[in-house]
Design brief:
The complex is a heterodimer. By secondary structure, chain A is mainly α. Chain A contains 26 helices and no strands. Chain A has 2 domains: about 15-130, no CATH class; about 140-430, no CATH class. Classes of the chains: A mainly alpha, B mainly alpha.
């Protein structure tokens, strides 16, 4: 009978907390959206599943050794921990606080004390440390994105870079929004949090995760989920804004065929970009450096094996670990609060402002060019979200004029948006990091 | 504290957006310059390549035809 009771006391049902139940449902919803609605399935399947794993009661997969030790709260281990952290209280609450504010050496001492007590890091916690906390996974993914990117359309029409710049306004407007909400007392964001939330408007998953991991790791789960969900929603979010800001006549503008871009230009471009980053904004060097490296692998033509690995096998492997690690941040105590809701709302506003500014900038460029050479619909592609945003531009162009193929023209601002959001990320890291 | 947060946000917006524009404007300039230089010097490099290809293709086709003819003849001889 005692054995049966032990089994019951150790079961998931007995230990399930309401928060965990909600997060399990959230994980299932993410899986449903990914599998049934095809919302960015490559990321939302691992994220959703990671979210479910992170909320299994008592398993503590998303927690560090110390957090696991605190959860089970055996008195002698609590005493060891508090002495390791140099505090007198053995209350789990105050130990947690001391643990999170401790410096590196006492932090390590606490970890060792917990490990001596027989507790170890959860699986997902380890994944998170290796892939995200180290910064490795988003950067490797960025290299793969570079290896998949064709700068041809951008090189044929470099002015589309301005569209990629304008669309980044969404990022900074949202920072202001987050700061404003804090000032009027609705939310409580630091300037770092605000910067990390704003970057959702860059519509670039790896960039958002990289910035969030540096500036405000505690919001990473919500930011990553928001960034990837909104990228999946691009075909729903963008068209109404694009229609509202353009006239029928503007949408009908057909653009001239792009010129042929030579191989040498394509090889030189990543090098030129890298040099410019090196000279002007070294803080963007990790992101844009990996991006340029991946692109050079693709274009130089002598390392096809490396290019192939970067854009297929490697990016797939890293995506699995990145997804699971982001999922680990969906544990109930870190995800379920008003802040997450605020992030979701601010994120979508960032996205809308970015889209609108891209379209307005394209209208301005069109005016400057004489009014009949740039279709403003390609402006919305400046928010990155490659290649979804470019496809949306193409679709709306075809709706207005069935002979109007904007896809290649929209790819220019689209990849410009990737560069733009990486530069914006560098600026954020420089100013508030 | 509150006011400084807003001003921090404002300065981040002004400087950030300004920098993004300056950077991408420079990139536009540098890219155009690079393209111009390449177009100026590249045709010399690209043209012979095309010629080689054009010449190479018929030669290859001719040898293929010859090869097919030779093999067909050989097969015929062997069978007869």
């Amino acid at each position: 009978m005692d054995k049966l009771l032990d089994l019951w006391l150790a079961s998931g049902i007995y230990n399930l907390q309401p928060g965990q139940l909600i997060m399990l449902v959230v994980g299932l919803i993410l899986l449903y959206l990914a599998i049934n609605k095809k919302f960015e399935p490559l990321l939302l399947v691992p994220i959703g599943f990671g979210g479910i794993l992170a909320n299994i009661p008592e398993a503590g997969l998303a927690f560090s050794a110390v957090e696991n030790a605190l959860h089970f709260a055996q008195p002698e281990i609590l005493a060891n921990l508090s002495s390791a952290l140099g505090i007198s209280s053995t209350d789990p609450q105050s130990i947690t606080e001391a643990y999170h504010t401790s410096n590196a050496s006492t932090h390590q001492a606490a970890v060792l004390a917990a490990q001596d007590g027989g507790y170890s890091n959860g699986m997902l916690y380890n994944f998170y440390n290796v892939s995200i906390a180290s910064g490795a996974a988003p950067l490797i993914i960025f290299m793969g994105v570079g290896a998949m990117t064709d700068f041809g359309p951008l090189l044929a029409n470099p002015k589309t870079l301005f569209l990629g710049a304008a669309a980044q306004f969404g990022i900074f407007a949202t920072v202001l929004g987050a700061v404003g909400l804090t000032t009027i007392g609705v939310m409580d964001f630091s300037i770092q949090d605000a910067a990390a939330i704003g970057i959702i408007g860059g519509a670039d998953g790896p960039t958002a995760i990289y910035v969030a991991s540096l500036l405000s790791p505690h919001l990473l789960g919500a930011i990553a989920v928001a960034a990837y969900s909104y990228m999946a929603l691009v075909p729903l979010i963008q068209p109404p804004i694009m229609r509202a800001l353009t006239t029928e006549a503007e949408r009908k503008i057909t653009m001239v065929q792009l010129r042929q871009v030579s191989k040498i230009e394509k090889i030189l471009f990543p090098i030129v970009l890298l040099l410019l980053v090196a000279m002007l904004l070294p803080d963007a060097a990790p992101l844009l450096g990996m991006f340029c490296f991946g692109n050079l692998l693709r274009e130089c033509g002598v390392v096809d094996r490396l290019s192939d690995t970067a854009q297929n096998a490697l990016i797939n492997i890293v995506t699995i670990f990145l997804g699971l690690s982001v999922g680990s941040k969906l544990s109930a105590d870190k995800f379920l609060d008003l802040t997450t809701l605020g992030i979701l709302v601010l994120g979508i506003i960032a996205f809308c402002i970015g889209t609108a500014m891209g379209v307005l900038m394209a209208k301005l460029l069109n005016k400057l060019e004489g009014g009949n050479s740039i279709n403003p619909l390609i402006g919305s592609a400046g928010v990155s979200a490659v290649p979804m945003a470019a496809r949306v531009s193409n679709k709306l162009g075809l709706e207005a004029n069935s002979q109007n193929f904007l896809l290649m023209h929209a790819m220019g601002p689209n990849v410009a948006g990737v560069i733009g959001s990486a530069v914006a990320a560098g600026v954020m890291i420089k100013f508030v990091g | 504290m509150e006011e400084s947060l807003i001003s921090q946000g404002l300065s981040l917006m002004v400087f950030g957006m300004g920098f993004v524009f300056v950077f991408l404007t420079l990139l536009v300039g540098v890219t155009m310059l690079m393209s111009k230089l390449v177009v100026k010097f590249a045709p010399v490099a690209v043209a012979p390549l095309k010629k080689v290809r054009r010449n190479a293709a018929p030669v290859a086709a001719a040898t293929d035809d010859e090869l097919v003819a030779v093999i067909t003849a050989a097969v015929h001889q062997y069978r007869s």
